[in-house]
Fold:
Amino acid sequence: MYIVTGGYGFLGRYVVMEIMSNWKEKYVPIFIPVHKKYDLTKQSGIEKMFDYIFNNNTKPSDITIIHLAASVGGIQANQENPASFFYNNAIMGIQLLHTAYQYGIKKFVTVGTVCSYPKNPKHIPFVEEDLWNGYPEETNAPYGLAKRMLLVQSQAYRQQYGFNSIFLIPTNLYGPGDNFDPKTSHVIPALIKKFVDARNNNLNEVQIWGTGKPTREFLHVEDAAKGIIQATKLYNKPEPVNLGTGKEISIEYLAFKIADFVGYNGKTFFDYTKPDGQPRRCLDVSKAKIEFNWEATKDFDVGLWETINWYESNLK
Structure:
C-alpha cells in the first residue's frame, strides 16, 4: 500500500498515476490524506490517518509513504510567510516520519527541495555533498532549511533505528496542471499567466521581478514522478539524490521564449528593484542515473508548449 501525502497536488497527481502505471498488472491500494480530514501538521491528524488505515486490516510493514505534502510558493509568498513555510513544512515532516518509524512502516520517501542548497555553492551544477556548504538564498531560506532538517531526521533514523527512509531533491517543476495563482505560483506558470493575460488584454508591457539574469533548471512533472517512483522501488541509502535535467536557462531567456510561444508582441520590462532570488540553480544529476537508472527525457520546449496549452485550455 502507498500513502501519498499531497497526492491531490500538482506533483502528487502525477506520482499517483505513475504508481498505477508501474503496478498495473496487480491492484495496489493508494491512500491520499485530505487536509480537511487529516491535518498532518498536527499529531492528532497523523494518528487519525493511521487509525483509519490500520482499521482496514493493512499491516504497517506493507506500507510505503511518499511524503509530497508541503507549503510552497514563489519569492513573494516566501517573503510574506517565512514563519508559516518553516513551521508547516518542518513539523509536518518531522511528526509524520517519527510516527511512521514508531508504527514500523516499510519505507518512507521524503521529497525535498532545491531551495535547500546554499546560495553560493562550491560547485555548479550542485552536487549533493554541497548541501551543507552555506546558507540558502535568503528569500526562501526558512522553507529550504525546514526541508534540510527532514534530511537530517531521515539519516538519523536510519543510523539509530535502521528505518528505511530516503531523501530526494527535485529541481523546479513545471507542466500541465501547475499552480497559476499569481500569489503563490512559481516562475514558469507565473510568466505564462502574465504573457497570456497581456496578450488577451492588449497590454503594451509586461513587468517581471528582478534583472532576468538568474538561471534556473526546470524538470517536467512527469519526469519528476518517474524519478520518485524509480527511487522508491530501487534506492535504499541515506545520501540525498538530486532529480533534475542538469541544464540551466536564464529567467530573461525564459521570459522571451514564453512571450514568443504565446504570441505576445509587447515590451518586457524587468523591475530591478525586486529581488532576483538564487543567482544560479542547476543540479548534478549523475547520482540518480548511477543509483536507480533514472534521467529526465522530456524536451523543454515540448513540455513548455504542453503547459501553455493546458493553461489556455483551462482559462475560465
Remarks:
- The CA atoms of residues 166 and 237 lie 6 Å apart.
- The domain at 2-176+216-248+280-298 is CATH 3.40.50.720 (Rossmann fold).
- The chain has one domain: 2-176+216-248+280-298.
- The two ends are 37 Å apart (CA to CA).
